[in-house]
From TrEMBL:
Region (Disordered): 1-22
Gene Ontology molecular-function annotations: FMN binding; riboflavin reductase (NADPH) activity
InterPro entries according to UniProt: Flavin_Rdtase-like_dom, NADH-dep_flavin_reductase, Split_barrel_FMN-bd
Protein name: Conserved hypothetical flavin reductase
Amino acid sequence: MSTATYGPATGTPAFLRRAGEADGPGTAIEPGALRRAFGHFATGVTIVTTRDAGGAPVGVTASSFNTVSLAPPLVLWSVARNAYSFSAFAQADHFAVHVLGAGQRDLSDRFARPATDKFGGLALGQGHGGVPLLPGAPVVFECAAEHRYEGGDHLILVGRVLRITESDAADAPLLFHRGRYAGLAQAAG
Ligand SMILES: Cc1cc2nc3c(=O)[nH]c(=O)nc-3n(C[C@H](O)[C@H](O)[C@H](O)COP(=O)(O)O)c2cc1C
């Protein structure tokens, strides 16, 4: 077994630093190492949709989704600043988070590629704020955009859940771990 350590052994933690204060010695963590390390944190996979200013449907595959609060009902996810659909999400009043099932890997791949028409051939529903709804997700959270926070090269979007649609099919989740799709390993016994 090998271990690797990145970043400074000592120094002031970022959350204790004052605005503008330097990171401290040798704090640069190489992005590749960071991406690899982040990948150990297994997640579900979602597709988040909205409409752009011209009314065109927009969607991205996102694993940054997380639950925030029960009362009020809040969720969050973050959108990359270099995504084509960044400005659409940054300005959107509403968005919908589709939690994907194990059988929706192709859909995940489709929305993980920058493309002009990711929605071709899909039977779309219409949610709060006219947001496009995709078929087949185990659960969909329709949200009003409530807060936006700076998040480095991402923008963090917090949404208030307005409607939940759960599918009858108790589908196993699509998971993502260390750069690959994964399924739930069923415990024996
Ligand atoms: C499993 C997985 C998770 C992803 N999670 C996110 C995410 O949380 N936020 C994000 O902005 N992009 C995420 N991406 C990348 C986007 O899906 C990808 O960059 C997509 O091309 C963005 O679409 P756009 O460029 O048309 O806006 C993820 C991709 C995959 C495969």
